[in-house]
Each structure stands twice: as structure tokens, then as C-alpha cells.
Request: fold
Amino acid sequence: MAPKLIAGNWKMNGTRASLAEARAIAAASPAGGGGVARLICPPFTLIAAMAEVVQGAALGVGGQNCHARSSGAHTGDVSAEMLADAGASHVILGHSERRADHGETDANVAAKAEAALRAGLVPIICVGETLAQREAGAALSIVCGQIAASLPNACEGRAFVVANEHDWAIGTGRTHTPAQNGDENRAIRAALLERFGKQAEAAPILYGGSMKPTNAREILAVPNVDGGLVGGASLTAADFLAICDAAG
Ligand code: PGA
Reply:
């Protein structure tokens, strides 16, 4: 069985003092990962330092966003090539907070994912419905529409990850029921298989939204839930490692 992927998203949290958490996670991660692939995505400012701290350990480092172009006059932006140069292996793209705060569209996300692949990064492409969309019974069609429009054709034959995160569950303590996760992720898998063929069997589909040590085991036991995109609970080594234990 493929290892579950537990990806921590530190969002806009962390200073150099927080590298102690990454050091503790790295020290407690068994060689080879022990059946769990582990990743922390800190803010840009910590990527290079964190990559150094975790060097040689079974813990990867990723970015939380990138620009679609490799360089140029784009003040304040960071390219996928720069992330790779700093030591990142993955990049989160199209998180609901970026779609909401920065107006990122599916087309923007697809262009960024293409850039990530060009730079040799694994894109973690986020999809997910709002509470209003869920209550209107539109969750599945929204998510499948995002899958169609946010994943570039360049994903074909390449490693990529989909994170199915529910903005009403992010940071709220509310989670999907396991049955809801199973239904949605099965539909995502079917959409991926239809578009990319058999290769898509290997694409991890993560759950995102208030995953904690207390609920991770139940969430991760559902077929087609191949890991978690973890926000708040990834900020301390103790909680992140407890979730990794639940995934192992
Ligand atoms: P949370 O964030 O775990 O803090 O709810 C998850 C996410 O942003 O996907």
C-alpha cells in the first residue's frame, strides 16, 4: 500500500524559533518514513533554513504558493524554481485561503501547477467547496469542476497531489463525516482516472479541514483518503507526530 502523506501547512505562522518543531519532527521520523510520507510547508522565509535542519531525515519541505513565471518583474512573488532552489520538493497551490484572499482562479492555479512541474516540484492542488455550496447540494459539482480546471494537462505522467479541503471545516473544529469524505474522494478519483488514466491511481487525495490527533485515525481509514493537509495541528511537533502515528 502506498504510504499516507501527511502535509503540514504552517500558513502565515512561524519564525526561526519554530525550526525547533521541525527539528523535533525530523528526529522522531523513522528512516524511510515508517509507512508515512511527511512534509512541512512553512512560510517562504523558513524554507531554506528548514531544508537544512531536516536534511537526511524522512521529512520533506514544501512551499505554500508560487508564481507561474520563473523570474521577472513581479514584486513580492516567488517562483517555483526559487522554491526548488531553497530545498522544497512540493508546493501547495490554490488553497481556499489564497482563492479567497488573493482572488486566485482555477486558471491561475493551473498555470502555477504547470510552473511547479516545470521546476521539478510536486504540486499539491487544493479543491473544495464553501459551506453555502455544500448546503446547496453543489459540493461534488464544484469540486469536480475545480479538478477539471485547476489541474493542467502537464500533470499527465507526473507526480501530483490533490487536497480536498473544505473551507467551512478549516480552523473551525468541524470535519466531514467519514462517509462524506469517502463519497467525495471517490468522485475525485473517478474524475482523475477519466482524465489521466491509470496513472491517477497513484495520485494521493488528501483530506483538509481540522484534522487533529483525535480524529485523524477515523478520517484516514476511509478508502481514497490518502493523507491529510493539516493546518493548526501541524504547528507543534507533538500534534503533527501524533497524526503521523495515526496514519502509519
Ligand atoms: P486546519 O487547516 O487543519 O487548521 O483546519 C487545514 C487546511 O487549511 O487545509
User: Anything to note?
Assistant: Residues 9, 165, 170-171, 208-211, 229-233 surround 2-phosphoglycolic acid (CB under 6 Å). The CA atoms of residues 65 and 148 lie 20 Å apart. The chain is about 40% helix and 15% strand. The longest helix spans residues 178-196.
